[in-house]
Amino acid sequence: MVSAKRETAKTCDVADCGKEAERSISLKQISKSSLKLKNPDVRGVHLCKEHYKTFKKDTKTSRELDHYY
């Protein structure tokens, strides 16, 4: 069985980026990073591969602390 790709490809919600989104993160989590969004009024933020990597680097310590507590 071949998996069908999404019909409506989402684009990255980071300002000045038009790449296809790979992941979706909540706005609350994104607020902990340094990423600037096109529209800050959305509930879920779509990120491309590069910006997801940046998000993970920015929030590494807080995610580790959340894991322990």
Question: Quick summary of this structure?
Answer:
The chain is α+β, with helices and mostly antiparallel strands and 69 residues long.
Summary keywords:
69 residues, alpha+beta, two-stranded antiparallel ribbon, 3 helices, 12% strand
Structural commentary:
The chain has 69 residues and is of the alpha+beta class. The protein has a domain of 46 residues. Helix content is 33%, strand content 12%. It has 3 helices and 2 strands; from the N terminus they run βαβαα. It has a two-stranded antiparallel sheet with strand order 1-2. The longest helix has 10 residues. It is elongated.
Order of helices and strands: EHEHH
Structural class given helices, strands, pairing? alpha+beta
Mean pLDDT level: 87
The rounded Rg comes to 13 Å
Got a strand count?
2
State the low-pLDDT regions, or none: none
Physical arrangement of strands within the biggest beta sheet: 1-2
Give the distance, in angstroms, between the N- and C-terminal Cα atoms: 42 Å
Largest sheet: 2 strands, antiparallel
- SS element count, helices: 3
Helix content: 25-40%
Shape: elongated
Strand portion = 5-15%
List the helices and strands and how they pair.
Layout: E1 23-26, H1 27-30, E2 44-47, H2 49-58, H3 60-68
Antiparallel strand pairs: 1-2
